Amino acid sequence: MTSKPRWFIKRVSKQSISLQHMKEDHTEHGEQSNEMVIRTDPGQSPIRIDKFLLDRLEKVSRNKIQNGIKEGAVTINGKAVKANYKVRPNEDIHLALPPSRGLGDRVIPEEMDLDIRYEDKDLMVIFKPPGLVVHPGIGNETGTLVNGLAHYFKNMDLPVKEGNELDRPGIVHRIDKNTSGLMLIAKTEFAMTELAKQFFDHSIDREYIALIWGAFDDDKGTIEGNIGRHPKERLQMTVFPDGDEGKHAVTHYEVLKDMYYVSLVKCKLETGRTHQIRVHMKYKGHPLFNDERYGGQFIKKGTVYAKYKQFVNNCFKLLPRQALHAKSIGFVHPSTKEYMHFTAELPSDFQEVVNKWHDYVSSKKAKM
User: Fold this and answer.
1) What residues are labeled active site?
2) Beta strand ranges found along 214-323 (DSSP E)
3) Is the pTM above the cut of 0.70?
């Protein structure tokens, strides 16, 4: 039986730098690593070698340089050096930047209709439909966005974010399976590093639209509360209001439409914790409409009449998932330094349910 072709992933940078010597060395996996020699200037000041290389190698991250030094890939006179080694004038620095560990980790390419909203040599902005898992995991080896990216990019190397598993190439951030909306994909290691830093610094502008049960007292507000793993329900996150556990989390909200039984709200993330909006809304007593994990699949506000229950159940069928949509994302482009902003309207199932709630409430008011 012939197995499906698999896409090999590696964390390899491509340098564009004037070097005295460069050659290709084929590894046992058939991959290539660049060997190069960089000679320091006659008047070179004594600075750390990791800083020296960071200044000389275009679009190579500090982590990659420091990892290469740790692995003995940077030598002088045949001897490996440490990151704090001070370079000297007229010194030949030998580098052999190998493919990163885990080269054998693979993702099965699958043809998939990708809704690409923007693409250049550094990055891609993609619309993820509801129901699509972002990356492979237990029970989801295939059928994920990453499988689709593997087919789209063929044999192109995509970077892996520091700390991520190798089956998450290009993934800068993620959104839940049943959440729709915009995602950033990094195509180069430089783009990955720069975009990840913007996420870490909370400078990425992300706006979500959510349909929640009930209504807030104020049209605008901020929800603060550390978020961490629920001590009993391991598939859930929860708020630790005393701040003794979890990670700091801040969500700003604005009510767009108060429909009494439910509300359409805009949420802006200051931090990006797992299930942040879903958890914060539940914490405030307003779980997302039809959010099964956090109790939104039950009627939280409304009448006891059978017609109302039937109406809600019909809405659940139209929108069989949590009512959450990543509407917009704004960021500074890693290479051009231009601010970029993209938006995506509500998917049809979400919009249809919002329209039904609007019509239902309007008809109730007309009868009063």
Assistant:
1) 176
2) 220-224, 226-229, 237-240, 250-259, 262-269
3) yes
